[in-house]
Specification:
The structure is a single chain. This protein is α+β, with helices and mostly antiparallel strands. The protein has 6 helices and 2 strands. Strands 1-2 form a two-stranded parallel sheet. The termini are far apart.
Protein backbone atom coordinates (compact mmCIF):
# COMPACT_ATOMS: atom_id res chain seq x y z
CA UNK A 1 0.00 0.00 0.00
CA UNK A 2 2.82 2.42 0.82
CA UNK A 3 4.41 1.67 -2.55
CA UNK A 4 1.17 2.58 -4.28
CA UNK A 5 0.75 5.80 -2.30
CA UNK A 6 4.39 6.74 -2.88
CA UNK A 7 3.98 6.23 -6.60
CA UNK A 8 1.17 8.80 -6.75
CA UNK A 9 2.91 11.20 -4.36
CA UNK A 10 6.36 11.15 -5.95
CA UNK A 11 5.07 11.40 -9.52
CA UNK A 12 2.60 14.13 -8.59
CA UNK A 13 -0.31 12.20 -10.12
CA UNK A 14 -2.64 11.91 -7.11
CA UNK A 15 -4.95 14.67 -8.36
CA UNK A 16 -5.31 13.20 -11.84
CA UNK A 17 -6.03 9.74 -10.44
CA UNK A 18 -8.76 11.17 -8.18
CA UNK A 19 -10.37 13.08 -11.05
CA UNK A 20 -12.64 10.14 -11.93
CA UNK A 21 -14.13 10.15 -8.44
CA UNK A 22 -14.59 13.93 -8.42
CA UNK A 23 -16.35 13.92 -11.80
CA UNK A 24 -18.54 10.97 -10.85
CA UNK A 25 -20.02 12.82 -7.89
CA UNK A 26 -21.03 15.69 -10.16
CA UNK A 27 -23.41 13.43 -12.13
CA UNK A 28 -26.90 12.21 -11.36
CA UNK A 29 -25.76 8.56 -11.64
CA UNK A 30 -28.53 7.84 -14.14
CA UNK A 31 -28.30 4.57 -16.04
CA UNK A 32 -26.75 4.81 -19.48
CA UNK A 33 -26.84 1.79 -21.76
CA UNK A 34 -23.54 0.64 -23.21
CA UNK A 35 -23.51 -1.33 -26.45
CA UNK A 36 -19.95 -2.69 -26.34
CA UNK A 37 -18.64 -6.09 -25.30
CA UNK A 38 -18.31 -5.96 -21.51
CA UNK A 39 -16.56 -8.21 -19.01
CA UNK A 40 -17.23 -7.73 -15.28
CA UNK A 41 -15.42 -9.07 -12.24
CA UNK A 42 -16.99 -8.47 -8.84
CA UNK A 43 -14.69 -8.69 -5.80
CA UNK A 44 -16.13 -9.44 -2.34
CA UNK A 45 -14.06 -6.76 -0.56
CA UNK A 46 -15.45 -3.96 -2.73
CA UNK A 47 -17.83 -1.49 -1.08
CA UNK A 48 -20.56 -1.85 -3.73
CA UNK A 49 -21.37 -5.18 -5.37
CA UNK A 50 -24.08 -4.89 -8.01
CA UNK A 51 -26.17 -7.96 -8.83
CA UNK A 52 -25.75 -9.61 -12.21
CA UNK A 53 -29.28 -8.58 -13.18
CA UNK A 54 -28.19 -4.92 -13.09
CA UNK A 55 -25.24 -5.70 -15.34
CA UNK A 56 -27.49 -7.46 -17.83
CA UNK A 57 -29.86 -4.47 -17.93
CA UNK A 58 -27.11 -1.91 -18.56
CA UNK A 59 -24.73 -3.92 -20.75
CA UNK A 60 -26.52 -5.35 -23.78
CA UNK A 61 -23.35 -7.25 -24.75
CA UNK A 62 -22.30 -8.59 -21.34
CA UNK A 63 -20.28 -11.68 -22.20
CA UNK A 64 -18.42 -12.38 -18.96
CA UNK A 65 -19.49 -12.06 -15.31
CA UNK A 66 -17.18 -13.27 -12.58
CA UNK A 67 -17.74 -13.14 -8.82
CA UNK A 68 -14.26 -13.66 -7.39
CA UNK A 69 -13.67 -15.46 -4.11
CA UNK A 70 -11.09 -12.93 -2.87
CA UNK A 71 -10.05 -9.34 -3.43
CA UNK A 72 -11.40 -5.86 -2.97
CA UNK A 73 -11.04 -2.30 -4.21
CA UNK A 74 -7.37 -2.84 -5.06
CA UNK A 75 -7.98 -6.13 -6.85
CA UNK A 76 -5.13 -5.59 -9.31
CA UNK A 77 -2.73 -5.74 -6.38
CA UNK A 78 -4.60 -8.31 -4.29
CA UNK A 79 -5.66 -10.82 -6.96
CA UNK A 80 -3.75 -10.02 -10.17
CA UNK A 81 -4.45 -13.35 -11.89
CA UNK A 82 -8.20 -13.01 -11.41
CA UNK A 83 -8.08 -9.30 -12.32
CA UNK A 84 -6.53 -9.90 -15.76
CA UNK A 85 -8.77 -12.84 -16.64
CA UNK A 86 -11.55 -10.62 -18.05
CA UNK A 87 -9.29 -8.56 -20.37
CA UNK A 88 -7.75 -11.78 -21.64
CA UNK A 89 -11.20 -13.07 -22.54
CA UNK A 90 -12.00 -9.77 -24.23
CA UNK A 91 -8.84 -10.06 -26.32
CA UNK A 92 -10.00 -13.51 -27.45
CA UNK A 93 -13.19 -12.11 -29.00
CA UNK A 94 -13.38 -12.09 -32.79
CA UNK A 95 -12.71 -8.66 -34.31
CA UNK A 96 -15.84 -6.59 -34.60
CA UNK A 97 -17.70 -8.23 -31.78
Amino acid sequence: MLDNISLYWLTNTAASSARLYFESFATDFSTQRLDLPVAVSIFPGEVFQPPRLWGERVYSRLFYWNEAAHGGHFAAFEQPAVFVEAPRRLRALPRGG
